[in-house]
Structures are given as structure tokens and as C-alpha cells.
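Check out one such.
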Amino acid sequence: MVVIICSLLTVCYVLLMAAYCTGWQRQKTFTLPVVYKPSTFISIIIPARNESLNIGACIEAILAQKYPLELFEVIVVDDHSEDDTAAVVNEYADSNVRCISLADQIAAGTKVNAYKKAAIAAGIAAAKGTLIVTTDADCSAPNSWLMHIAAIYEQQDPVMIVAPVIFSSDHSVLQLFQLIDFMSMQGITAAAHSMKLGNMSNGANLAFSKAAYEQVGGYEGIEHLASGDDYLLMMKMNKVAPQRIAYLKSANAIVSTTPQPDWSGFLQQRIRWASKSGKYNDAKLTGILLLVYLFNLSFLVLLVTGIFYPHLFFVEGVMLAVKIISEYIFIVPVARFFRRSWVLPFFPLLQPLHILYIIAAGLLGFIGNYKWKGRKVK
């Protein structure tokens, strides 16, 4: 019975990876028009908490954009920082950058569970732009980032634009693991969008029209959930405009961000991401996540039962080989797109760690308790 179940899970997983491979190839690369003059005013919202070491570089990258200065503004929302984040931002007061204090936007005694949503909402309320772009304080964007976002917005008239994000890496095991894992998720995001296999997004590189945001009531109804400022808002917009969510596949629109500095922070981040599970109505994505979790859990089951039935170790070895090969075929073109092909030799070596991480993060994410930005969230 164990062999039959594991075999079925393996077949389903291989079919899923084949679908992702097809989806990645079908997702067309967006090319900026040769002659393009943007007309959209963009408001870039950056929620920031204790980011004094990062926010300056983030703002500098935005101010270096090829996008016309008169067509964008930068609004940093200081989320109760205990460092000099606000002071660093205020050094740019003479440009089109301003800092808003979230503490000034929240009434005394108000209980807040989703500070990031509250920060983004405060920024949007003060924004002048018709198009809202969100990113994080530890991110850096190439100088044609806004041009590509505006171009796809003006060409396709989407209510939301999902764009690629990648981690930097210092070649340590921790950062290599995070880079490979996150790059895979980014590839799946593009592929799933193309194949209609569920919606995914990342708030470090996300754009949406202010009108659509107001139409769905912003974060109303999801403001009690600490995570999901990106995905849960997408699901609200998907209900009213399911055909108007675009994916911006362009190497010139990739935002780079920093990985977590230690294993504890990495796990807490992934628990935060996984805590959205069950908080949305997306049967396809829920089914896929369940398949991925059960497939990875089966390796642990085989490891334990193999003690009593040694032939199951062979089954586990075959499954691991199939997993590595099917995932490798998918990640090769994704790595080329992100210009990270140099990580591919490390991919098979980190597979056992990846399996354990999926099992742990999935379970702890379901429980939903984690610590983030110095705050305990339940």
C-alpha cells in the first residue's frame, strides 16, 4: 500500500513539473517598445521597519530609474522603526521622496495584526498615482524597472502586474539554499500564471491600479491576517477581474532582495508565507500545495518504514532521483532567465535539506505562529 501511494504521488508530481516546464516556456517575454514614452504616474510604496541600513540603497536605485522624474513619487511608510529609518528617508526630502509615519495613521488603542498591510494602505491613501507599485526596503531594481511596468500596464490594461524577484547570494550553504528555493518559486509563479494553475505573487515587485484597489475595498476583510498583503489582495482582484492579472516576464524588471541572515530567520519567513494557506479560495493552488507537501512527506514516511521493510529504501532512492531530474529540467531555463545558472551544480546536493524544509515549513505554517520584524504573530 505504501509503495502504491508513493508511486501515485510521484507520477502526479512529475506531471505537475511537466506542466510547470510547459508554462514557463509559454509565458512570453515582455519587450519594451523601441519608441516608448510613458504617461502613467506611478506611486512606489515602501513599507519599512528598522531598515536604516537598506532603505538608502533602495531609494537610490529608484531615483536612478530611466522613468521621467515628474511621473513618479516614492512614499516610504515608517512602521514604528526603532532605528534611523525615517531620518535616512528624510534626507531625500528635496526629491520626490517622502516619509509617512504609520504611528500617526493609527488611532490610539487600535489593535493591529497586519502592520505591513496597514503601512501599504497608509501609503496608498496618500498616493497621487494611478498605478501603485510596492517593493521592500531591502530591494534594488534595475534602471528600466518602472519603464517595463508602465509599458505593460499601458499596453494590456491589467488590474495587477506580478513581476520577478531574485535573492542575492554570498555562496554560503544558507544563501545558496534560499536562492535556489526562491528562484524555483519565482519560476513556478510565472508558469502557474501561464497554465492557469493558481495565482502567486510577491510584494517585493508588485503593481496594481489604485482604482482596482479601491474597487475591491483594499485590504478590507483580510486586514486581520498578518501575512498576504500581496497574494490575498490578488485573490480579491481576481474575483472581479480574473483575466486582467498580468505577469511581467522580463530580465530588465527583476528586483533583487536580500536573503535571511540565519536559518531561524529563513524558517520564520517561510512560516509567514505558508501561514496564508487555507485563507483563500483557490482550489487549484490548494490541491497543488497538498500534492507537493504529501510527496515530500512520503520521503520521511519511507525513511521510517524502511527500517522495518528495507526494500522501501530502494523505492525512496528511485523517488529522489525522479524528483531531482524533473525539478532540474524545470529549473535550468529559469536559472538562465535570472542569470543564476552557476547555482545548478548545487541543486542536487541540497535536495535532502529541501525535503525537510518543505515538511517543517508546511506544518509550522499551518499552525501559524512565527516571529517577524521583532513581533510575535499568531
Observations:
- Residues 2-24+282-369 form one domain.
- The chain has two domains: 2-24+282-369, 29-260.
